[in-house]
């Protein structure tokens, strides 16, 4: 031990000759204080990195989800943080309810919450809505997408149209929206080098993109397709400074079947809301630092 101490001492004296005037006791106090100060500083920088350093103020965030609860939980934080938020959905009631819910979280006067009712299969309509939203709210910094339809059934009993319908809502809706937003995100991403400043696409998908369960061939296949799409796009988008993340959550896989639960509906909605809130918090921690 004392040898390590002598070693540190002699190295320090090489750099700062005046240290040789100190007794061993004084030197060890100085050494300990340095170590403590250094640790405190490291902890502080870690906390800065983990903490809320990304500024969402007046950034434009676009959210697509066919689950009102997920849309609202994610949008709530964006609105609280001063972002301009665009909600897109194929369900008019969902848009009206969500906007009403969000108005009470507005952080400053010139903040905009816009809604677009669209058919996620109609590419030119999506393109137009996104361009319109950019005119009022700025280039898109962040896109959250969550699109999920679940028709359970044995393969031999399912209709071809069941497969088509789930591929349309779980896969093609997402392809359409990403493709429509990409040119605008590229404009935003130019010259952004810091990870926290790069535009991001965050897909919220159930974990069934990597395992299957019985009687869900059409559903699981569409989820695997999304995983494949993300793995390809993630690399392609690096060239444009755009980060793409696939957020797979076990909990979300229950959301669709939750609709079957009749009793304690309010309680299960509350649970979903809290789970969706966690997605925002986790995304923020892991994708913006
Ligand atoms: C952003 O939202 C978080 C809650 O998620 C809040 O703690 C924080 O103060 C907000 N930041 C701003 C700038 O409003
Ligand atoms: C539209 O959303 C509302 C609530 O947000 C829901 O009650 C209704 O079932 C939805 N309609 C369709 C066709 O999904
Ligand atoms: C797609 O949306 C446009 C409006 O933006 C509409 O004119 C067109 O008929 C739609 N196409 C289909 C196939 O619904
Ligand atoms: C958000 O909307 C307000 C009002 O139109 C605008 O002043 C602000 O610049 C917008 N944010 C961005 C990033 O364009
Ligand atoms: C899935 O189906 C197989 C074949 O019918 C059956 O043996 C198995 O127990 C089922 N698994 C579950 C979890 O129901």
UniProtKB/TrEMBL annotation:
Q: Which GO terms describe its cellular component?
A: endoplasmic reticulum membrane
Molecular functions per Gene Ontology: 3-dehydrosphinganine reductase activity
| Stretches that traverse the bilayer | 25-46
For the biological process aspect of GO, one term held by this record is: sphingolipid biosynthetic process
A Pfam family of the record is adh_short
InterPro entries linked to this entry? NAD(P)-bd_dom_sf (IPR036291), SDR_fam (IPR002347)
Keywords on this record?
Answer: Membrane, Transmembrane, Transmembrane helix
What SUPFAM superfamilies is this protein classified in? NAD(P)-binding Rossmann-fold domains
PANTHER family documented for this protein: 3-KETODIHYDROSPHINGOSINE REDUCTASE (PTHR43550:SF3)
The molecule here is called 3-ketodihydrosphingosine reductase
> What organism does the record attribute this protein to?
Anaeramoeba ignava (Anaerobic marine amoeba)
């Amino acid at each position: 031990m004392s040898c390590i101490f002598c070693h540190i001492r002699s190295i320090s004296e090489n750099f700062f000759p005046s240290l040789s005037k100190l007794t061993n006791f004084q030197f060890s106090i100085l050494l300990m204080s340095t170590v403590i100060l250094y640790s405190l500083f490291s902890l502080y920088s870690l906390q800065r990195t983990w903490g809320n350093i990304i500024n969402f103020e007046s950034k434009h965030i676009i959210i697509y989800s066919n689950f009102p609860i997920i849309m609202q939980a994610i949008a709530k934080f964006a609105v609280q943080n001063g972002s301009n938020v665009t909600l897109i959905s194929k369900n008019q009631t969902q848009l009206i309810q969500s906007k009403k819910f969000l108005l009470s979280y507005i952080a400053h006067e010139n903040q905009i919450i816009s809604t677009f009712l669209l058919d996620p299969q109609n590419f030119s309509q999506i393109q137009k809505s996104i361009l319109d939203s950019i005119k009022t709210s700025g280039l898109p910094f962040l896109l959250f997408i969550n699109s999920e339809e679940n028709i359970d059934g044995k393969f031999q009993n399912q209709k071809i149209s069941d497969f088509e319908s789930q591929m349309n809502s779980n896969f093609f809706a997402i392809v359409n929206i990403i493709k429509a937003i990409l040119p605008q995100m590229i404009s935003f991403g130019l010259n952004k080098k810091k990870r926290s400043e790069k535009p991001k696409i965050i897909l919220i998908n159930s974990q069934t993109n990597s395992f299957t369960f019985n009687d869900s061939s059409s559903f699981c296949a569409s989820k695997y397709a999304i995983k494949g799409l993300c793995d390809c796009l993630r690399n392609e988008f690096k060239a444009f400074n755009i980060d793409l993340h696939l957020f797979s959550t076990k909990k979300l896989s229950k959301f669709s079947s939750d609709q079957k639960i009749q009793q304690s509906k309010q309680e299960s909605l509350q649970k979903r809301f809290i789970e969706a809130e966690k997605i925002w918090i986790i995304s923020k921690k892991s994708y913006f630092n």
